[in-house]
């Protein structure tokens, strides 16, 4: 084991620990309960009487369950809309050469390089007028704006990766363009699209600013946690953070291979 | 054989959606900011600038962006290069390093709050090492430097993954023959990195910087959770004016500032890191 | 300029054995082609010589110096990659001078060497352009110029012509040969194209499944293949192989009785190239039934069967033969190769003798 290799491995281990340890610590705080959270000095190992009391307590707090459900509602909406609106756009970019294609692509890219959440501010007025203010539906719509560019661009590259000849073969052997899309393109692109859908879900689940601006009484989980930030006891905050983290990390784990290939990271 | 209108039909839904929920609000923001009492004026901006927290918000935001973004780029570059040399378990390492991607900035803030709070884990370690004798506050109004450091660390922890993932994808796009050719023709590993890998990574670096900087200017929940009202930033002020003070005009003014700096930064990156047409 | 000794090199990737055992001696100034189908290990061997892969065991010596554990940049080599690997963010001039810059040569020397290499490869007008502005063939020249500019002791080439279209490939082959002859650099050239190997190399090493099957001059490898694989791989169309029974030291083929090499019993393989079979009368040859005729320009290739086995024959273009016809053939005895049916290896080089003519039974 050369010095170089030792340094290299240390570097990798340190960086992994740097990512994982903080998560472990907040999990500790969430599960350990009031005792752990308020104790000093802090223990680094779970208490002998491990209990999920804090977690249960956390969920018993009025507002947490309901806000979690609102979060799910908004996230599912964001997911559905992003895919339904974005995939056709991606297909158009991948398969057609048409005047305006570059402009369209540029516009989509532009929205990505933009502080989109800021737009929740003027949307407040519009939403109030439309009765969408303070609804998870409205929040979901706003989040779709965040996720839509990803959906378009990634599905475009997904479709591009599928050889045109497969579709053309379907046409030659009797399929209409729609049927060919349904039976050939979509099944092949589906895993990638599923990954994008999950990514859209996670984006919505995690978003804080727009959700906070656009809700008052029907807050999503992030908005709720933000609003009670200063008032709630520490262990509730920890539990809240933990609850926010777990589903997203789980989802990303499940689709990691797809997500990586979708972002262009091949497995060598 | 396809009708010429088909592509337009396909892009219409997304385009329509973005028009209503992006372009229109964009224009509205600008209109809101530059209007007061029904007439065009810069009153909102004056009120914004006159506010106690304005200077702090601007300074704080820029401080964070200028410190965090280059640090993250360096860190992510290092991590991407390290990853190149990992053989077994590369998948796992990459997954671990990209976990923060799925973590909300609010959650990240809470995580580091747990560590850095008075009775938190950091102080526990420092106590154990004998550096401290009791709980020490790092995040209070009286300790602005450590507060800034805390936010920088939390942001570093949370958002480096974004840059990393883009860079790793970019590195894959560079055919390994370039590195091998450089090696055969005499380049040391460092020379290989600076003369071949880095220049060929320029497009990815550009993308990563644009995305990261725009997100950095949008910083909100992480600051609120760690610093509370001790560390105002542009977006938290915008939120405050909109939600608590119900002054949509000033909030819009803040929004315009954020949009403006993001746009400026993007244009600067696009210009400085452009690939000349001859090289494409 | 240096000689290369490859001593007992093996390479496995996990359980997959890429190179079973390779020993090779390449003389100073020699042009050696590593020829073989995809997956035979030729590129792996080249990369081991370059230092881009580490061998599982064995040594590589260049000019008497053991370079086995040295990184590529310390081996004094130059390499031309299959996809050229010409840096897109540098001009042609910067590309060609890259090796010299890395070695720390002074500006005047770099200038001189770049100009010389550019002149050799005829790329002077492109020196200040970027690779993206050049065609594939031009980029390939840049890659070669970059390699020659450093005047390497050894030049390695990994299928450099395979990405060019057929006509360009032919032109570049001729140019490469003359340029490299002038330079006199020891060269190892990997290819799967046997015409390329035959045209360019002083010696050819034919690889198959991680082993060298034969090393020899193009003529040797062509006329006296060491195994059925070499006979079938080198030369287009490939050699014919007829499996025939041996009876009392002789082999019967149609009306011919041939003396088999000493000590062979049971069955034997007769190898003969399509162009070494001559039409003859029934009493002096064996029968051949035509199934497919292909007029290829310089000759007509007939595919068919004899003694129940597939055979190909080449006849002059002005003597077409109808499909289904039966004709009679006789091999040129000085061009026949005998092979062992079990191992595929060639058996000695005794001159083939015809024992007798006449109908079956003699």
Give a written overview of the molecule.
The complex is a heterotrimer of chains A (268), B (280) and C (362). With 268 residues, chain A is mostly helical. Chain A folds into two domains: 60 residues; 205 residues, MetI-like (MetI-like fold). In chain A, 76% of the residues lie in helices and 0% in strands. Chain A starts with a helix and ends in a 6-residue tail after the last helix. Chain B has 13 helices and two strands. In chain B, strands 1-2 form a two-stranded antiparallel ribbon. The radius of gyration of chain B is 23 Å and the shape is globular. The relative contact order of chain B is 0.13. The radius of gyration of chain C is 25 Å and the shape is elongated. Chain C is built from nine helices and 21 strands. The longest helix of chain C has 18 residues. Helices cover 23% and strands 34% of the residues of chain C.
Task: Name the CATH architecture of the largest domain in chain A.
Answer: Orthogonal Bundle
Count of runs of 4 or more consecutive helical residues of chain C: 9
Oligomerization state:
heterotrimer
Report the portion of residues of chain C in β strands.
25-35%
What is the first-to-last residue Cα distance of chain C? 60 Å
Strand order, sheet with most strands of chain C: 6-7-8-3-9-10
Report strand % of chain A.
Answer: under 5%
Task: Write the element-wise H/E pattern of chain C from the N-terminal end onward.
Answer: EEEHEEEHHHHEHEHEEHHEEEEEEEEEEE
Helix content of chain C: 10-25%
Largest sheet of chain A: none
Q: Which outline of chain A best applies?
A: globular
Spans where pLDDT lies below 50 across 5 or more residues of chain A: none
Secondary structure category of chain C: alpha+beta
The total beta strand count of chain A reads 0
- State the low-pLDDT regions of chain C, or none: 358-362
Shape of chain C: elongated
Itemize the secondary structure elements and their pairings:
The complex is a heterotrimer of chains A (268), B (280) and C (362).
Chain A: H1 3-38, H2 53-60, H3 64-95, H4 101-112, H5 120-130, H6 136-161, H7 164-172, H8 177-206, H9 209-213, H10 221-227, H11 234-254, H12 256-262
Helix pairs in contact in A: 1-11, 2-11, 3-6, 3-8, 3-10, 4-6, 6-8, 7-8, 8-11, 8-12
Chain B: H1 6-33, E1 35-36, E2 39-40, H2 43-50, H3 52-85, H4 90-98, H5 105-116, H6 121-129, H7 144-173, H8 176-184, H9 189-200, H10 202-217, H11 221-227, H12 234-244, H13 248-272
Antiparallel strand pairs in B: 1-2
Chain C: E1 4-13, E2 16-26, E3 31-35, H1 42-50, E4 57-62, E5 65-66, E6 77-80, H2 92-96, H3 98-102, H4 107-121, H5 136-149, E7 154-158, H6 166-183, E8 186-191, H7 194-200, E9 203-208, E10 211-216, H8 218-223, H9 228-233, E11 240-247, E12 250-253, E13 256-259, E14 266-272, E15 277-280, E16 286-295, E17 300-306, E18 309-315, E19 326-331, E20 337-339, E21 354-356
Parallel strand pairs in C: 3-8, 3-9, 6-7, 7-8
Antiparallel strand pairs in C: 1-2, 1-4, 4-5, 9-10, 11-12, 11-14, 12-13, 13-21, 14-20, 15-19, 16-17, 16-19, 17-18
Helix pairs in contact in C: 4-5
